[in-house]
Amino acid sequence: MRRSQIRRKKLCSSAPSLFISFVNPQSAVANPGYRGRLAPSPTGYLHLGHAQTFWLAQKRAQANSGTLILRSEDLDRNRCKPEFVSAMIEDLSWFGFNWQEGPDCSGPFAPYNQSERLPFYRAALEKLRAGNFIYPCTCSRKDIQQAVAAPHAEDDEPIYPGTCRPKGDGWRVAGDAKTIPFSSRVNCQASLRFRVPDGETISFNDGNFGLRQFIAGKDFGDFVVWSCRGENDIPAYQLACVVDDASMRITEVVRGADLLVSTARQILLYRALNLTPPAFFHCPLFQDETGARLAKRHDALSLRTLLQQGETPGSLRWKYFKCF
């Protein structure tokens, strides 16, 4: 599939859709200040699960007469490949997505590749360090999984048992957080972890699921905001996502229900950084015929494979989303 063969298409927002029951009727009121986003990670080929969530994001942006942004979350140096980056743009365009800002067309909040936005993340990390919200942690994922007192959060992430956590009962770390320089380091084995306010209920009104509440320290624990393992020295998803959504002025985040707990974590980051969080709208996850959640290893339902099998965007949108 050649890039020159792909054209973005204006799509009828009035067509019947699987998501009509999900959309808040108030969103039909034009809101030109609305800013939504598509935020894929080019670590493999996009599949129908991505298309479902992104389609809803586009529908909500269109219903508000707003702006849709494409952001490439390409921080994972080991898994993000150039061929996946180009395929991401091509497959989204082929399927019928139409964004107004992104890595292929720039915009007022460029760059739109996370790998080019490290200064933004470092500045935010310094604020967290200055506020004593973070501390160094040398625990590996295996260490945490093997800890006897490490239950799993709702999103199946092990709750950190506090091995490296400084002593004290307050939310912020007592005293100054130890300095870990940002310069390139080889074989670094320490990360920076955000200390959550144990026992505090984090609440937010989700646009689809309504009021959601998670208890810090019970439903999720201290989480990594900066990862330093081997040659990697990069922000973790939670921090990068918050920084980018804030700096790109995103007004609503549409994403899968598997990230509901992450929203509670990110609300704490917004608060610590003195930023206003956007609205959130989480949608059910796309499942295959066996009921399993799709992953990028499900090549049979990747957009690229479906294209090669002769499927058309219109037929796929009608078959799976009931929308041309």
Explain what you see.
The protein is of the alpha/beta class and 324 residues long. The protein has two domains: 149 residues, Rossmann fold (3-Layer(aba) Sandwich); 120 residues, Glutamyl-tRNA Synthetase, Domain 3 (Glutamyl-tRNA Synthetase, domain 3), CATH 3.90.800.10. The chain contains eight helices and ten strands. A four-stranded antiparallel sheet has the order 3-4-7-8. It has a two-stranded parallel ribbon with strand order 1-2. Strand 7 and strand 8 form a beta hairpin.
Outline of the structure:
This protein is an alpha/beta fold and 324 residues long. Helices cover 27% and strands 15% of the residues. It folds into two domains: 3-116 and 287-321, Rossmann fold, CATH 3.40.50; 118-237, Glutamyl-tRNA Synthetase, Domain 3 (Glutamyl-tRNA Synthetase, domain 3, Alpha-Beta Complex), CATH 3.90.800.10.
Helix and strand arrangement:
Layout: E1 35-38, H1 48-63, E2 67-70, H2 82-95, H3 118-130, E3 134-137, H4 141-146, E4 191-194, E5 201-206, E6 210-215, E7 223-229, E8 232-235, H5 237-247, E9 252-256, H6 260-272, E10 279-283, H7 303-308, H8 313-321
Parallel strand pairs: 1-2, 9-10
Antiparallel strand pairs: 3-4, 4-7, 5-6, 7-8
Helix pairs in contact: 3-5, 5-6
